[in-house]
From TrEMBL:
InterPro entries: Znf_MYND (IPR002893). One of its GO terms (molecular function) is zinc ion binding. Gene3D superfamilies: 6.10.140.2220. Residues 9-49 form the MYND-type domain. The keyword Zinc applies. This is RNA binding protein. Pfam families: zf-MYND. SUPFAM superfamilies: HIT/MYND zinc finger-like. Keywords: Metal-binding, Zinc, Zinc-finger. It comes from Rhodotorula toruloides. It comes from the Eukaryota.
């Protein structure tokens, strides 16, 4: 008889057997110990829930994201890691180096990866997914625009870039279950951080406690499932337990 899967809650780090059923059907166990924890992270988690959970698939671009990205393809707004060195590059440059995508093809892929397009490629199309990553990294920085969805997805893509090679693969279609789980955990953290901006001041203390607990849970997960070097990279990304997350 198969044992019941156990894991740590993506929000608070508590050991639990309660998992997202839709993501389990996609082949990955993502745990939420209670309806409260799942509700806290739902705004962001729902963007990757179910068929987009594993392998990880970013959703299509909103028209605003696509327009902003197309205007910014030649700006040095991309983090690019090569042989341990961090470079600033344009989206077009990264596309050429990573995927052999020309600037003309990148523009076509961004348009094909927009919600309103009539010429749509399968969401799991490898080049399309990479173009969507780059588009979101090229999207104008908030802070905190009208669309919570765009904020979360933009931040998630930028955090992925900061963890490329050392912790996460540069293409998330290549992520194993541990790497995909870490990515989902970061999406939940980004979500809770973003939602906190709109919270009334009387909820700020409780919200801050959740963030501290959540950072601890991510670092604990990384310590178990990744190398010491990767753990250090994640810890650096999270800054410290007492500092706010830099979205």
């Amino acid at each position: 008889m198969a044992s019941t899967p156990r894991g740590t809650c993506l929000v608070c780090g508590v050991d639990t057997t309660v998992r997202c059923s839709s993501c389990a059907q996609a082949g990955i166990d993502l745990f939420f110990c209670s309806p409260k924890c799942q509700t806290l992270a739902w705004t962001g988690h729902r963007l990757f829930c179910g068929s987009c959970a594993f392998p990880v698939l970013f959703p299509l671009l909103s028209p605003d994201e696509a327009t902003s990205a197309l205007q910014n393809l030649d700006k040095h707004n991309q983090v690019y890691l090569f042989e341990g060195t961090v470079y600033s590059a344009t989206a077009a440059e990264v596309a050429a180096v990573r995927c052999g995508i020309s600037k003309k093809e990148l523009k076509s892929l961004i348009r094909a990866g927009t919600e309103c397009t009539t010429k749509r490629l399968p969401l799991h199309h490898r080049k399309l997914q990479f173009a969507i990553y780059l588009a979101r990294r090229a999207h104008d920085l908030f802070p905190f625009k009208a669309s919570i969805r765009d904020d979360i997805l933009c931040s998630a893509s930028k955090k992925h870039a900061e963890l490329e090679d050392d912790v996460l693969p540069w293409h998330l279609l290549d992520a194993n279950r541990s790497q995909a789980t870490l990515f989902h955990a970061l999406v939940c953290l980004i979500t809770i951080t973003r939602i906190g901006v709109d919270q009334p001041i009387e909820n700020a203390v409780e919200h801050a406690k959740y963030l501290c607990r959540y950072r601890d849970a991510i670092q604990a997960y990384t310590a178990v499932h990744f190398t010491a070097e990767a753990e250090g990279t994640v810890r650096k990304l999270m800054h410290s337990e007492d500092e706010p997350i830099d979205l």
